[in-house]
Amino acid sequence: xxxxxxxxxxxxxxxxxxxxxxxxxxxxxxxxxxxxxxxxxxxxxxxxxxxxxxxxxxxxxxxxxxxxxxxxxxxxxxxxxxxxxxxxxxxxxxxxxxxxxxxxxxxxxxxxxxxxxxxxxxxxxxxxxxxxxxxxxxxxxxxxxxxxxxxxxxxxxxxxxxxxxxxxxxxxxxxxxxxxxxxxxxxxxxxxxxxxxxxxxxxxxxxxxxxxxxxxxxxxxxx
Length: 223
Prior knowledge:
Elements: E1 2-7, H1 12-27, E2 32-37, H2 50-67, H3 87-99, H4 104-117, H5 125-134, H6 139-146, H7 149-164, E3 172-177, E4 180-186, H8 191-212, E5 215-216, E6 221-222
Organism: Flavobacterium potami
Protein name: DsbA family protein
InterPro entries: DSBA-like_thioredoxin_dom, Thioredoxin-like_sf
């Protein structure tokens, strides 16, 4: 059974939601969880001036209080050239999904921790290349793919897919069955709050599978 996880490495609530996703993957191994970089603010020219720093710190404190995730408020990634453009990190995840698909969640977590807890600039391709090395991907191979037209196109397609399914924010979990979108969760919530929605979806999916194989009339049933 397939579920889509729409996220963004530079979305602070997604960082807070990361331990919840970890539990979801551990406790429901049969769920095929596909990670999609939905595009929080691709192409943004937003600089981290004092006003925007206050904005970030406010939300980071809220995420920390709800999730327990650690944030380094020094924001060492801030520089004269840094802008809050989430496209590079989204594209990096696309590259990892191509080169080492089973490590995409690990890489997403690594980007989040590097950005929020260590202050690394994950809009920088060299920083992203070093992170790729940490999960066993050759940096040169990573950068070749990162700068390819194919990866840029697939990244934009991920953003469009998010819009097509009506995703309005991150994190979002949903399913797509026979063209019908079913929202599982939107925004941060605890695992204990999420679990009933997962159980309900799984039960409904099982019933649907059973009914799909049935063909009954007033006198008999067949498959």
